[in-house]
Structures are given as C-alpha cells and as structure tokens.
Amino acid sequence: MQFLCKEYQDGNPRVRGLVTDTRIHLVPSLNPDGYELAREAGSELGNWALGHWTEEGFDLFENFPDLASALWAAEERRLVPHQFPSHHIPIPEHYLAEDAAVAVETRAVMAWMDKNPFVLGANLQGGEKLVSFPFDTARPSPPTPAAAPRPLDYEDEHPELQETPDHAVFRWLAISYASAHLTMTETFRGGCHAQDVTDAMGIVQGAKWHPRAGSMNDFSYLHTNCLELSVYLGCDKFPHESELQQEWENNKESLLTFMEQVHRGIKGVVTDQQGEPIANATIVVGGINHNIRTASGGDYWRILNPGEYRVSARAEGYNPSVKTCHVLYDIGATQCNFVLSRSNWKRIREIMAMNGNRPIRLVVPGRPMTPRERLRLRMRL
C-alpha cells in the first residue's frame, strides 16, 4: 500500500496506470484474531501456528461452502445444467443459518464478494514458496459397478484431479506471479520443507498438493466471476521484522505483474437497443464451460489467454448476440460490446404453458378442425 501511494505521487507511470485503471482492494489481514495470537508468539517459536485459526476456532482455509463437491454430485445425477447450475452456484440455505458453523470473517468475506464484481484475486500466505490455483477440492473416484457400497465416513485414498474449465487461464496467472518472483522458480533446491511439488515451475493445482474442501479459491470461482489463487510468499510462515525487506523485494515485481493480468482478456458492456445496460446478462465463451455475468451497469470483464474466441451474450427476454473477439499478448483487454434485441420468447412460453407445453398443432387450410382444436383456438382467442 505504501509503495503504490508513494510511487503514484512520485509519478511512476506504471503505478499511475495501474491505480488509475484498476479498482484495487487490499485486506491487510483476513484473520485479525489469529494474527494477534501469532504476533504475540513471535517468529522464533512454532506457537505462531495458533494464528491459523480464528478466536472461535474456525479454520478459514476450509470454512467456505464446498460448492465443488455439490457440483460434481449434481453432475453424476445428470442435473447439470438444467436443474443445477455449473457456475454462479448459490450458497446453500443451511450455510446461511444463524447457527451454522461459519466464522464471522467468512460471512464478511462472502458478503464482500457478493457486493463487489471482483475479477481477479489472490490470498497471500506464508510457509511455502509457490502459487496454488483451483480446484483445491479433490473429486472422489467414481465407484465401480462391482464395488461394495461405501460407508458414510468413507474417504477415497486415490481421488481424481478435476481441472477447472479455466485451467489454462489459471496456469497463466500463476506463472505470471511465479516467473516474476526472485526465487520462486529456483526449485532445484527442492521445496521449503519437502520435495518440490511444482514440477520446477513454482505453481501447482491445489488438489494435487494439499487437497481441501471449502476453500476460498473454489468458492470464489464457482459462486462469483472472480478467479482467485493462493500465493505462498516464502518459506517462513511468520518472518522476523528484519527479514521483511528482502521478502518485499522478492515479491514486489510479482505483485505488480499479477495485478496487471486483470487487464488481459475481453471486457465490454451489454445493453438493449435503447442503450440501457442489462445487468446479470450471461457472457458465454465458446470452448470454456464457465460463464460470467454482467455487473449492475451491464459491464463485464473476462480474463482469457491470447487467442480467438466465439463469445455470446444472453439475457432473459432478449435474443442472444454472438461475435468473435480477439485477445492479444499485450496487456490491455479487448473491447467486446453487445446490443441485445427484445425477444418474444416470454409470450411463446406463456402460450405453450396454456397448451400443456406441447407444440401448437399447425392448422391446414381446408381441413376440418377437430373439437379439441376448436376448443384450443377459442381458449387462445
């Protein structure tokens, strides 16, 4: 925060452009209670691990709704997408109950996410030196037909790695951070506390490294438009004050480069023929089975890797619009606006509902109508 403010005031063109063109939200601590406990214990002893939990005893790493498991269960029952959405999955009602086992901090973050149309996010942690991206949840292996029924407390020892539809985009974002870090890709020395799990790249899918259900990354991806990653800044979980300057130098360029990636892909506004913005319109990118929605002003942002994409905008009561959008390698999102025309599908659905949701039979001139056809005609008239 200090760096951005100072460099902006000093006229740094890179920082000025970033601050001017980007809504940057910074949260110094997601778990202030835990931080206070860790600070009191200090960096010399292992007691700083007490800071992992909130004062109420919640682990924020696993306290968000597990929407990934709910999605996969719905897929196995063939409920997706007609009865269960594959994106913008709502928060389960039982999770919002007052007596639910949910931390105050978790509720606050979820409300914050719903209020702001975030596009890109990172939660910064310590204790390792890598970038982790969704899915963090491991998908259970499907049982074979001959397998015995599983007990309720069954835990699969060999879960499957389920990639997100935006796997290539997540890898790009993770590499953009790791490659700019001064030491993150120096994995020839191994990991911080064990062997290297990143295939010498400094990045890893969360479920491959440390599977956990209910992470903020998975929740953000499946409930909002935001692509969220976990950045592990360095091997020391709670570095000493004298080490902070070097940790800052290690991560400074990575932080700037990562924030700049929010301007990669496509952006635009969805309006009707009168120029009025359409909120909650769906933006569909061909080949990527994960849609986003427009904000209250009809505007949207979609991070994409360089390439050519077939993009469509859809909204209730409007005819869809399709166009080809090109994403370049240079930073700067491609403008792709959509103008939607009103459709008569709402009236058609009303007529079909009156007709029992069956196609209306075509009346051929000169052919006598049956009594049922006459009745339907009178009802429609």
Automatic annotation (TrEMBL):
**Keyword Aminoacyl-tRNA synthetase attributed:** no
Q: Name one GO biological process term.
A: protein processing
Does Metal-binding count among this protein's keywords?
Answer: no
Peptidase M14 domain segment(s): 1-262
Region of interest called Disordered, as start-end residue ranges on this chain: 136-158
The record, for SMART domains, names: Zn_pept
Provide any one GO MF term from the record.
Answer: RNA polymerase II transcription regulatory region sequence-specific DNA binding
Family stated for the protein in its record: Belongs to the peptidase M14 family.
The family database entries (PANTHER family) matched by this protein are listed as: ADIPOCYTE ENHANCER-BINDING PROTEIN 1, PROTEASE M14 CARBOXYPEPTIDASE
Q: What is this protein called?
A: AEBP1 protein
Source species of the chain: Onychorhynchus coronatus (Royal flycatcher)
